[in-house]
Specification:
21% strand; STAS_dom_sf; STAS domain-containing protein; Transcription Regulator spoIIAA; alpha/beta; MlaB-like_STAS; STAS_dom; 35% helix
């Protein structure tokens, strides 16, 4: 499953946290948080990422971050989050894409729906969530 987040700070944490809670309730094997459209991340958001990472690990899953801009990449490196969970840029996102497409019923990384899947999208506050089942 993939979550695209456009703003990730204390002001939108309740909405984003609620979306991530709903996603984790589905017990996915992998969640990718795409930050391509996000310009800022703060300590509260990093705390939420760590919490989601811990919950995913306990459930046997993986949380990955994809496409952070250079500023957010530096913030993640400073917080050493890049040493805890996978952080991929466009050029390095192939491992995440391969892991996602290897899961049954998950669409290919190129965005085309896999056979038998129906893409659904919903906006929650400032977080856009794309769920493919």
């Amino acid at each position: 499953m993939e979550v695209s987040i456009t703003e990730f700070d204390l002001s939108c944490l309740p909405e984003t946290g609620a979306v991530l809670d709903q996603l984790l309730a589905l017990r996915p094997g992998q969640v990718v948080i795409d930050l391509a459209g996000c310009r800022h991340i703060d300590a509260a958001a990093i705390g939420l990422l760590l919490d989601v990472h811990r919950r995913m690990v306990r459930a046997g899953g993986v949380l990955a971050v994809r496409n952070p801009n250079p500023r957010i990449t530096r913030i993640l490196q400073t917080a050493r989050l890049d040493q805890i969970l996978p952080v991929h840029t466009d050029a390095a996102s192939a491992p995440v894409a391969e892991a996602i497409t290897a899961a049954p019923g998950v669409p290919p990384a190129d965005g085309t729906p896999a056979p038998g899947t129906v893409p659904r999208a919903a906006a929650y506050g400032r977080a856009a969530v794309t769920v493919r089942t």
